[in-house]
UniProtKB/TrEMBL annotation:
Family annotation (InterPro entries): HPP, TM_HPP
Residue ranges annotated for the HPP transmembrane region domain, each copy included: 5-141
Source species of the chain: Parasporobacterium paucivorans DSM 15970
Name of the protein described by the UniProt record: HPP family protein
Keyword Glycoprotein: no
Record keywords: Membrane, Transmembrane, Transmembrane helix
Transmembrane segments: 7-24, 30-47, 83-112, 118-139
Length: 144
């Protein structure tokens, strides 16, 4: 496959993943789409051999980062200290657990700055990350 065909296949995968997650969010009225999922799709569809593209990294890091952000907000509210603390703790845990996925750090900041509640961890973060990971796994196996 030439590089332009490869890019077309990868871009189509990103399109499908973003569209499906967005449509499911619309249908269920849960608002599943968050900005970091765009960067996650680039990694999963275009950089699939990257350590950052492993499913455990994607799901694990989004879980850790959203937990850190929500907990930090509920303990310290929305301050510069709580944002920095949440991101620092999230990165520390991701490194220890070997589940680094850089786009997930954005959900930490989103959780603190928006005052997210505990449900944010499940909807949109965990459910969206799982959907994108499954879609990417199926799609990339079909178009190796």
């Amino acid at each position: 496959m030439n590089r332009f065909a490869k890019y077309a296949v990868e871009s189509t995968g990103v399109f499908i993943a973003i569209l499906l997650v967005s449509l499911v969010g619309d249908f269920t009225q849960t608002g599943l789409m968050i900005a970091p999922f765009g960067a996650t799709c680039v990694i999963l569809f275009s950089l699939r051999s990257s350590h950052f593209a492993r499913m455990r990294n994607v799901v694990g890091s989004y879980t850790v980062c959203s937990l850190a952000g929500v907990a930090s907000y509920h303990i310290m509210e929305n301050t510069s200290w709580s944002i920095a603390f949440a991101v620092g703790i999230a990165v520390f845990i991701m490194l220890i657990a070997d589940i680094v996925h850089p786009p997930a750090c954005a959900v930490t900041i989103i959780a603190v700055t928006t005052g997210a509640d505990w449900l944010y961890i499940i909807f949109p973060v965990l459910s969206g990350a799982l959907m994108i990971s499954v879609i990417a796994t199926i799609y990339t196996r079909k178009f190796k």
